[in-house]
Structure formats: C-alpha cells, structure tokens
Amino acid sequence: MAKRWVSSFLFLSIFLAMVVSHSADGPLPALFILGDSTADVGTNTLLPQSVVRADLPFNGIDFPHSRPTGRFSNGFNTADFLAKHIGYRRSPPPFLSILSHSSSLSKKFLRGVNFASGGSGILDTTGQTLGIITLGAQIQQFTTVHSNLTAAIGLEETVKFLSKSLFVISTGSNDIINYFQSNNRTLPKEEFIQNLGYAYENHLTTLFDLGARKFGILSVPPIGCCPSLRTLDPSYGCLDEINEYATFFYTTIQALMQRLSSEYQGMKYSLGNAYDMAMYVVNNPVAFNFTDVKSACCGGGELNAQSPCVPTAALCSDRDKYLFWDLFHPTKHACKLAAFTLYTGAPVFVSPINFSQLAMDN
Asked: What are the residue numbers of the active site?
C-alpha cells in the first residue's frame, strides 16, 4: 500500500508541474467554477431530487452529438468558453461526476472542478427547496478538493497550486429574482442588495482562507430583459424595476472587491460587468448578428417564454440569431460573445483587469 501511495504521489507531483508550468502561450491555471445555471455543466443532472434541470432535448441540440448535458443552453455555456480561452476543451467536469472516480480524485482535481448548480444563489435560502446545491454547499465541496490535494501533494504545493488557479463565480440573479417575485419584500432594494454583499463577502473570504487568490467575478446581467420577465410588461419591454437591483448589485460588488483586494494580501480579481455587456448587445443587436433579443429560442407562449425548453417546445431554426435560449438563459452564441468579452475586454466591461490578465498574472 505504501509503495502504491508513493507512486501515486510522484505521478501527481509531475502532473501538477505540467499543469502550472509555462508554455509558449503562458501558464495554464486550473479552473474552479462556482455559481448557478449560467455555469452549471451537469451538476443538477446528477441530483435525482433536483427540479431545476436541463437534461432533456432540445437542450444541447448544438452540443457535440446533439445531446443534453445538463447545460441550460443549446450548446456550450460561458464557463465552457472561458475554459477554452484558457486552453482547455471545455469547462472542468462537475464535482459530483468526479466523485464517481474515487481512485483518481486528486489527479482529476488538478485541472479544476465545476461546482455550479442551477437554481442556487448567494444566500443559502435561495433554491434550498429545489434540490440543488447552494453556494455555501459548493464551497464545502471545495474543502473536499482542498483536503484531497493536500493529502496527495502536501500543503506547500497545494498552496502554490491554488494561488495560480482561477476561481470563477457567477451568481446573484436567482437571489434577486426570488426576492423580487416574493410576497415578502419587506426590505428596501438597497438594504437587500447590501445583505447580498455581506453574504458574498463571507463566501469569498472562506475561499481565500482555503487558498483561492485569483477571483473572476461575473455580476448580475439585466435580468429584467430576460424573455420570462419581459412577458410581465404589456409592451414586452425590460422590467426596469428589477434591473435596478442588478445595477445596484454591480456597484455593491465592485466596492466589495476593491476593499477586499486591499485588505487581503495576494487577492486579485477581475469583475465582469454583465449588466453593461448584455445591455450593449440588447441596444445594438445587428452589430452582433442578432435578430431577436427579446424572445426565447426554445419554449412556448408569449415570447416563447412562458413554458420551459422540453422536447415538445417550439424551437427556433436559426439559434445563432437569438440572444436567449430559453426563459432566462443565453444561447451558445451569446455565451461565446460573453466569454470573449470577459477574457479580452476593456475596462468598460471588465475591470480592473480582464480574465486573461488575471489568469496569466502569477
């Protein structure tokens, strides 16, 4: 048993050196992804009790072999395209799928893990009745990764490895939508968003204490412009009231990241302004080859956005012309554009540095 452990340790050490070594294109950091359905690559499909799922056609119709993978998209999502920019084929696999290969856990963790779960949010109460994995529980899953890495390669190498890794977090929309649609809106908008900020800070500092140093944060997009919420407006316009929550969330997280990066030595971050990114496309669709930025490509009812994307749904024929795939989520084409902007964009959309600069900054 000891001989086998030593052999495994040597292999992992060599593999780790390969993953974080500099190539002609620069370093290849591991990618740890947390958040909601915008980044979920199959987590909820592995949760039998989850009612938030994307494991039926027409989801995945433009994915390799036209198969539904649990991504809330017709193909790859933003997490996948960010991973492609970094140098991988797609997003790292869901944490739960890696657990089924327990004999080589640590090896699989070295390229990164996707913890994102559709329906989750910053608050532990968001999605807790939907059979999903909350953000707090996702971070608990990361502690398992940390423990496995430490056991395999030692604490010093784990610290080094995680300091070069990129932690991408896409969350907040579900918290705002749930609160906005609830019958218990007792807090002013500003106070509710400040509470989200406090909860987000606790999650970020927990990750920092576990070794995370480089954070790629996606803010909340203009959720009031999603097809499902547009159907609540008589003219199918964006719901400005809920969009105000999203803009205030961005300024809150912007101030939070500026403060944390000054207080915590070694913390670096890139903050994607998903609100301005999306609104620029909504207001200039032709420039990005979109012909429909209001309707869902897959669904039913008004704006094709009053029922989910299932095998009996109405499906648009030219999916690259649509900004939205279903009631809430962007199409593969929109995700590709978002990832490109996050990775290479100017400070007007991603600051203080873009994801490429963050990933390569060692």
From this structure: 37, 326, 329
